[in-house]
Write a structure and sequence with these properties.
Blueprint (H helix, E strand, L loop, with lengths): L2 E2 H4 L2 H8 L7 E4 L11 H8 L6 E6 L2 E3 L3 E3 L6 E7 L13 E4 L7 E4 L3 E5 L1 E4 L2 E4 L3 E5 L5 E8 L2 E3 L2 E4 L3 E5 L10 E6 L3 E3 L2 E2 L6 E4 L2 E6 L2 E3 L2 E2 L7 E4 L2 E6 L7 E4 L2 E6 L3 E4 L4 E5 L7 E4 L2 E4 L3 E4 L3 E5 L1 E4 L2 E5 L3 E4 L7 E6 L20 E3 L2 E2 L13 E5 L5 E6 L2 E3 L2 E2 L3 E5 L2 E6 L2 E3 L2 E2 L4 E3 L5 E5 L2 E3 L2 E2 L6 E5 L6 E10 L6 E7 L4 E6 L11 E3 L4 E3 L4 E4 L60
Parallel strand pairs: 2-3, 3-6, 4-7, 5-8, 6-9, 7-10, 8-12, 9-13, 10-14, 11-15, 12-16, 13-17, 14-18, 15-19, 16-20, 17-21, 18-22, 19-23, 20-24, 21-25, 22-26, 24-28, 25-29, 26-30, 27-31, 28-32, 29-33, 30-34, 31-35, 32-36, 33-37, 34-38, 35-39, 36-40, 37-41, 38-42, 40-44, 41-45, 42-46, 43-47, ...
Antiparallel strand pairs: 1-13, 57-58
Length: 597
């Protein structure tokens, strides 16, 4: 019998169930010496799957040349564990693995309709198949069952396939499948590295199923040569990445590539597709780093998929055409494709941990678009959002910092009806040869609230934002409660009729075509140390206690909003404008500020 879904409850509960100690009915030992029970791995598998209780197959810390190890419908849990010094050993040797070498004419391990399968201390190499070169997992669990394949301290590397170079995971019920009912879990020091797919999913391809990474598991150096998702490709797949990454350095998706496709690190599509990526160590942020693609170097999102990143860093990703870090689109599908970046807080998943230093997390940093070959030039070093119809694409950046990204623009909206929201965001030190934010075409919505845009290098004569200027619930440009400090650059170059009421409670160097207004002030915001990246403000800043209260607005450092300073007269209200809210500091109440105290 499979694990009933009612017993699993959540992903965490499923993990606990799948990895709980088993009462093994039989232990099979592979080899030819004392204590060995079977000469081949397949013979032991065939014996084990015929029993209804949990069995274990033990492999030596040696190399096994295999064709395709086939694990069929099991009646009970099964463990295949490597790294034993001999058939008489009672536990695997520390750090040792059994190496399974495929013959290049099929998957190294093929799994069909198992209940619970544990693969521990294995090194799976040189498989070649249509689906899942290293491991091919397929099943059709009913709505009341959950099938789990768990990898512990297992490496899947140097395999190839048409789809899913390292691992293929497919719920064969297709569109009728529940993604949570077929799960592949990676934990311990497991990795999927240096695999290749001709089509989609160089590392992992997941279809109508679930993939989760825990502990120090990671996906890196994989390639999708002609398709999408260099590291991971998910079609109606649920993903959860709760890992410290390779060697515990936070790199969960790293150096994967899709040179002819979308989503170098990950590509996700479908209305049932979702991913949560989160930091789980307060001093080691989760990172998506060094990935590359034709478009969407770090992450590609399409056809109503949902992506949520909690205190995550997108760093040093690149695209050959557009979308250095992120591409969000909807193709021709219905539903809304959405990506959100934010700090971990009370509403985050239980596994998410807030960074000890909020400024060190929730970053889009040093991504780039190479000399462009696509229709948008080098657009969207941070992100590009393409919508084929209104309300089909949305990106939200809450407390996110964008810095040192390089492209024609930092943020680019195209098509018709994409929405971008910056709330408590910090857009600084980016290189944009055009403007910083550009909405190309009509019907887009850009909302910049309680954010700071400053010290970016922009093309000569270009405004900071190029977009339509009339705001409404469905579209247009709105900038409020913000600092836009780009001397000799106008705040906005409207591409359609402009409504000055859409620009309120602002500090800026140049309002361009906007008429003078009491709540639009040209004044130096007095950053503490912009040259060294500190965009908080001195106590004499005109940005303090300047705007009406909006307590739900975010801050860059995760601090609360609306901290009314006792010794300062409110200009229009008690809230500061920009990405930070200043607390009253009694030590420096006289207006003196110290950066190094």
């Amino acid at each position: 019998m499979r694990i009933p879904s009612a017993l699993a409850g959540t992903f965490a509960a499923t993990l606990a169930l799948s990895m709980s100690p088993m009462a093994h009915a039989a232990i099979y030992r592979i080899g030819s010496g004392a204590g060995c029970t079977h000469a081949t791995i397949q013979a032991a598998i065939d014996a084990a799957v015929a029993t209804a209780e949990g069995d274990e197959i033990r492999l030596g810390a040696t190399q096994y040349n295999v064709s395709t190890l086939s694990i069929g419908a099991t009646d009970g849990p099964l463990t295949v564990s490597g790294g034993y010094a001999s058939c008489l050993a009672t536990s695997p040797a520390a750090g040792q693995r059994a190496v399974l070498i495929g013959n290049g004419s099929g998957s190294v391990v093929r799994v069909r309709n198992v209940q619970t399968l544990q693969l521990a201390n294995l090194d799976i190499r040189q498989g070649s198949a249509t689906e899942g070169g290293g491991i091919d997992v397929q099943g059709s669990p009913s709505a009341t069952d959950i099938d789990v394949v768990a990898l512990s301290n297992t490496l899947v590397r140097s395999n190839g396939a048409l789809r899913g170079g390292g691992i293929g995971v497919k719920n064969t019920l297709g569109t009728n499948a529940q993604p949570g009912n077929l799960q592949v879990l990676l934990y311990g020091d497991s990795s999927v590295t240096s695999n290749t797919a001709t089509d989609d999913g160089g590392g992992i391809r997941c279809e109508h199923a679930t993939v989760m990474l825990f502990d120090r598991s990671h996906v890196g150096l994989n390639t999708s040569s002609e398709g999408a998702g260099g590291g991971i490709h998910g079609l109606d797949c649920r993903l959860q990445l709760t890992s410290r990454g390779v060697s515990g350095n936070g790199a969960v998706l790293w150096s994967n590539s899709a040179p002819a496709g979308l989503g170098g690190g990950m590509f996700l599509r479908g209305s049932q597709a979702s991913v949560d990526i989160m930091t789980i160590d307060a001093i080691v942020p989760a990172r998506i780093v060094g990935n590359s693609a034709l478009a969407g170097g770090g992450i590609g999102v399409n056809d109503a998929a949902q992506v949520r990143l909690y205190d995550t860093i997108l760093q040093q990703n690149s695209a050959a055409a557009y979308g250095g870090a992120i591409l969000v689109s909807n193709g021709s599908g219905v539903g809304q494709s959405r990506l959100s970046m934010l700090h971990a807080d009370a509403g985050s998943p239980s596994a998410a941990v807030a960074c000890a230093d909020a400024e060190a997390c929730n970053l889009v940093r040093s991504n780039r678009v190479d000399p462009g070959t696509g229709p948008f030039g080098r657009a969207g070093a941070g992100f590009i959002a393409f919508a084929s119809a209104p309300d089909r694409v949305r990106v939200d950046f809450r407390g996110t910092r964008f810095d040192f990204n390089d492209g024609t623009t930092l943020a680019h909206l195209d098509g018709s009806g994409a929405r971008a929201v910056f709330n408590g965001a910090l857009l600084v030190d980016n290189l944009s040869t055009d403007g910083l934010i550009f909405a190309q075409g009509g019907g887009h919505a850009i909302d910049v609230s309680s954010s700071t845009l400053a010290s970016n290098s922009l093309g000569e004569g270009n405004a900071v934002i190029r977009a339509a200027g009339a705001c409404s619930a469905s579209g247009g440009l709105q900038v409020r409660h913000s600092i836009v400090w780009q001397p000799q650059r106008a705040l906005v170059e409207p591409t359609a009729a402009i409504d000055p009421a859409c620009f309120s409670h602002l500090i800026s160097a140049d309002f361009g075509v906007l008429p003078a207004a009491a709540d639009r002030v040209v004044a130096d915001p007095l950053f503490l140390a912009a040259a060294s990246g500190n965009f908080q403000v001195f106590s004499a800043s005109p940005a303090l206690d300047f705007a009406p209260p909006r307590a739900t607005d975010a801050t860059r450092d995760g601090a609360p909003r609306v901290m009314d300073l006792a010794d300062r007269t409110d200009r229009f209200g008690p809230q500061d404008v920009g990405a930070y809210e200043r607390f009253e500091d009694r030590l420096f109440k006289n207006g003196f500020d110290c950066e190094t105290c």
